[in-house]
Specification:
single chain; 200 residues; alpha/beta; Rossmann fold; seven-stranded mixed β-sheet; two-stranded antiparallel ribbon; 35% helix; globular; binds 5-O-phosphono-beta-D-ribofuranosylamine; purine biosynthesis; Formyl_transf_N; transferase; phosphoribosylglycinamide formyltransferase 1
Length: 200
């Protein structure tokens, strides 16, 4: 399976996928291209360090979102992509991309969905005062953070935490469950029935 990873930032989740593949945990998978909407995203450097094509698509050079996503589709089309990962990609994926890759786009979110959708989920959870939070890997549909859930992992909120220490505890688990979900997908073990993801 050829994997494309969409990123906007530091790329620690991208790294967890690369490391998992390089250590042989996900046979038959390769990260074929990393695409960023941010020029200086450290994730692009991580890709280059591993000999992976690193592509910056500048959203500001397109008249609208549709044109930007046409370019995204064109680049994806060069790699025979079977799976798209959103790994800290800070844009909502548009309808045409979702339709072209239905149930083949997976996102990692740093909260236990459906709680705390959207930006700064760890801070949202911390400020709300929850005692348990975590992370969610899910298929991407037209909504924001609404698609069928593949894996979740809970972490405790501890005495003395702040939003940053909580985020760090969650991130450790992101780095575990994201590669796990990719492995399940690549092995053909995930079936989507409505909202429910069944492991076969
Ligand atoms: C992670 O917290 C992820 O859950 C969220 O954005 C952050 C990306 O971090 N979607 P990184 O770029 O993978 O280090």
């Amino acid at each position: 399976t050829n994997i494309a990873v969409l990123v906007s930032g530091r790329g620690s989740n991208l790294q967890s996928i690369i490391d998992s593949i390089e250590s042989g945990n996900i046979p038959d998978a390769r990260v074929s291209v990393v695409i960023s909407d941010v020029k200086n995203a450290f994730a692009l450097e991580r890709a280059r360090n591993h000999g992976i094509d690193a592509v910056f698509i500048d959203p500001r050079t397109f008249v609208d979102k549709k044109a930007y996503e046409q370019e995204l589709l064109r680049v994806l089309g060069q790699y025979d992509i079977g799976l798209i990962l959103l790994a800290g990609y800070m844009r909502i994926v548009g309808r045409e991309v979702i339709e072209a890759y239905r149930n083949r786009i997976i996102n990692i979110h740093p909260a236990l969905l459906p709680s705390f959708m959207g930006l700064h989920a760890q801070k949202q959870a911390f400020d709300y005062g929850v005692k348990v939070s975590g992370c969610t890997v899910h298929f991407v549909d037209e909504g924001m953070d609404t698609g069928p859930i593949i894996l979740q992992r809970a972490v405790p909120v501890l005495e003395g935490d702040n939003a940053d220490t909580l985020a760090a505890r969650i991130l450790e688990q992101e780095h575990q469950i994201f590669p796990e979900a990719v492995k399940l997908f690549v092995e053909g073990k995930l079936k989507v029935e409505g909202r429910i993801v069944i492991r076969t």
